[in-house]
Amino acid sequence: MKRIILLSIIPFIGSLGLLPFVDEVDQYVLGMPFIFFWVVLWTLLISGFLWLIYHLDPRNMEDADK
Q1: What pLDDT is recorded for position 25?
Q2: Which of 10, 25, 42, 52 has the maximum number of C-beta atoms within 10 A of its C-beta?
């Protein structure tokens, strides 16, 4: 259960907690300003984290056994 809580905190910190520090960067990645790239990247990563949390949740493993 601690893994699930940790995995649910990481996207929040990465997407919102670090945003003020990322705003200072004046680089372009794939033709996008870095701040926009950061938001797009974390949008994709959050989907992965949610998938992982879903599959690690013991309540969902019980449903798979039935």
Answers
A1: 85
A2: 42
